TrEMBL record:
InterPro entries: Bact_Sigma-Reg, CheY-like_superfamily, PPM-type-like_dom_sf, PPM-type_phosphatase-like_dom, Sig_transdc_resp-reg_receiver. Keywords: Hydrolase, Phosphoprotein. The modification 4-aspartylphosphate is found at residue 67. Residues 18-134 form the Response regulatory domain. SUPFAM superfamilies: CheY-like (SSF52172), PP2C-like (SSF81606). This is Sigma-B regulation protein RsbU (Phosphoserine phosphatase). Pfam families: Response_reg (PF00072), SpoIIE (PF07228).
Length: 425
């Protein structure tokens, strides 16, 4: 069996690289072309640099094998011109030269060439240098392929993110709808709600509902955690405070067929059992639920781990209520204490989440009770939704516009004028 001579490697049919061969010697080109074609390369020939540039622009070779000394533009100059025009894909450039001085070789490499061959070059050395160049080109192809796959993946992720954003925006709109109207009126009382998630959706909820012709209820909930999981639990809890007596856990019909509300402490125990026994979730929530008599102004509320309610009296005095209490859904058989107070005409009750209490300034100082009290004092003459908006802007101003937690609040105001004012009018 005959074999090819050592200086004539067998053709590699898997190799489909295109080589631009530039040499003004027809004999030199013919000899090199034979070796290249036998090795499986596609060969494009050019007599000089001008022809090479035209071939480069139309054929887009992978490798350029160019003589150094040619009429007109030299090999290094051709290399510089090709590098300046760019190609998208990298072109491996090999200079053929009889110049063996280190300075000449350095000049060729600094012109942008990747390698050089001293003429006359054997077929074995030529193919070895080409294989070395192919390894470089293959690394580039692999990198480009990986980049393309990454780009496709990123495009898919962006599309998925856009779909998620649309869904979350819709979820946010629906969640905002859970609190109903941002403001409600019960006789001489006005209830204003704030719900401002830190993300698309959040775990806070506030609201109010009529109990009967004399009483109404208000609630504030803050579910542990953030995002979709917290929002789902919030939506589940919203049904416990709906306007329907069949769904509202706070409402019942007494023996006379009249609507009434369970005691706030009783509701706290019920919801605690619901979280631990029925929902069986690792989450928990803090809550304030208050029953308000719109005729007498009497208030009964339960504080279950929620930040302290704040009362601002008609005279401007600030009072903090409660001792904290246990969150709902943490300890089985937890008990809750009720707080009783009275809201006279001109008084108002603020129930704010920790997203407001814990807002921090640039030095890390929390807003806290003192900050909220100052906001109430500063905006003493501002009422209703205007007061809620003023509170939001004040808190964001304090935190430098940063919001790291959901912000929610419910503001209950006894709008009738104080008796002293009415008497003097």
């Amino acid at each position: 069996m005959r074999t090819a001579p050592p200086d004539r490697p067998q053709p590699d049919v898997a190799t489909q690289r295109r080589v631009l061969l530039v040499d003004d010697s027809r004999a030199q080109r013919a000899m090199l072309a034979i070796h290249l074609k036998r090795a499986g390369y596609e060969v494009v020939e050019a007599v000089n640099a001008d022809e090479a540039l035209s071939a480069f622009r139309h054929a887009r070779p992978d490798i350029i094998l160019s003589d150094w000394v040619m009429r007109g533009m030299s090999g290094p100059e051709l290399c510089q011109q090709i590098r300046s025009e760019g190609h998208g894909a990298y072109i491996y450039f090999i200079l053929l030269t009889s110049k063996a001085e280190p300075g000449d070789i350095a000049f060729g490499l600094e012109s942008g060439a990747d390698d050089f061959l001293i003429k006359p070059a054997s077929a074995a050395e030529l193919l070895a240098r080409l294989r070395a160049g192919e390894r470089i080109l293959q690394l580039q192809d692999d990198a480009r392929s990986a980049h393309d796959r990454l780009s496709e993946t990123l495009a898919a992720l962006r599309s998925a993110q856009a779909a998620m954003d649309r869904d979350l925006n819709e979820a946010r709109r629906l969640q905002q709808g859970l609190i109903g109207d941002s403001q409600a009126v019960f006789g001489d009382f006005r209830v204003s709600n704030l719900l401002r998630p830190a993300g698309h959706v959040g775990g806070d909820l506030t609201g109010s509902f009529a109990i009967n012709a004399r009483k109404f209820g208000v609630f504030a909930i803050d579910v542990s955690g953030h995002g979709v999981a917290a929002a789902l639990l919030t939506a589940r809890l919203a049904t416990q405070f709906s306007a329907s007596v069949d769904q509202n856990a706070a409402l019942f019909i007494d023996e006379f067929g009249l609507y009434d509300s369970r005691a706030p402490a009783v509701l706290g125990r019920y919801l605690n059992h619901l979280m631990l026994a029925d929902l069986k979730t690792d989450s928990y929530f803090t809550m304030i639920y208050a029953v308000i008599d719109q005729v007498s102004g009497d208030v009964r509320l339960v504080q279950a781990g929620h930040p302290h309610p704040i009362v601002q009296r008609a005279c401007g005095r600030i009072e903090r209520l409660g001792e904290g209490g246990l969150p709902v859904g943490v300890i089985e058989n937890a008990t809750y204490e009720e707080i009783s107070l009275k809201l006279d005409p001109g008084d108002r009750l603020l129930i704010a989440s920790d997203g407001l209490w814990d807002a921090t300034d640039s030095s890390g100082n929390m807003l806290g009770e003192a900050g909220l009290a100052n906001i109430l004092r500063t905006n003493r003459g501002t009422r209703g939704s205007n007061m809620v908006d003023a509170m939001v802007w004040s808190v964001l101003g304090y935190s430098g516009g940063q919001q790291f937690d959901d912000m929610s609040a419910v503001l209950v105001e006894h709008d009738a004028r104080p008796r002293a004012e009415a008497a003097g009018a």
